[in-house]
Design brief:
The structure is a single chain. This protein has 102 residues and is mostly helical. It contains 5 helices and 2 strands, in the order αββαααα.
């Protein structure tokens, strides 16, 4: 029996931060969108990257995104802000050039 598209995407508190993800996986809709829209991966590429997904899963995630663009874009902004905050608080130590041996 086929799984309806609406049953392929879930939001469960405690799983992926409660964000929309592919049912039975810890792959967020956001991840699929980034891979597809920002890294240029095709749905087939994504399935090759995460073999436990099906093409229908990937297409359901993309359909969810196009139905909920503002939600997913807000998740992207939130993640970028967290990354920037982390980088600001955890700077890499400076790298010093080794003294030249003579």
């Amino acid at each position: 029996m086929e799984t309806p598209t609406r049953d392929r995407i879930t939001k469960t508190p405690g799983v992926c931060g409660g964000r929309a993800c592919i049912a039975g996986h810890r792959v967020r809709v956001l991840d699929i969108v980034v891979w597809h829209e920002h890294q240029g991966m095709t749905p087939d590429d994504i399935v090759s990257h995460v073999p436990s997904l099906t093409l229908a899963d990937v297409h359901a995630a993309l359909a969810y995104y196009f139905d909920h663009v503002a939600e997913i874009q807000e998740e992207m902004r939130t993640e970028r802000a967290l990354v920037e905050e982390f980088r600001g608080n955890h700077r890499s130590p400076p790298v010093f050039a080794a003294a030249a041996s003579t």
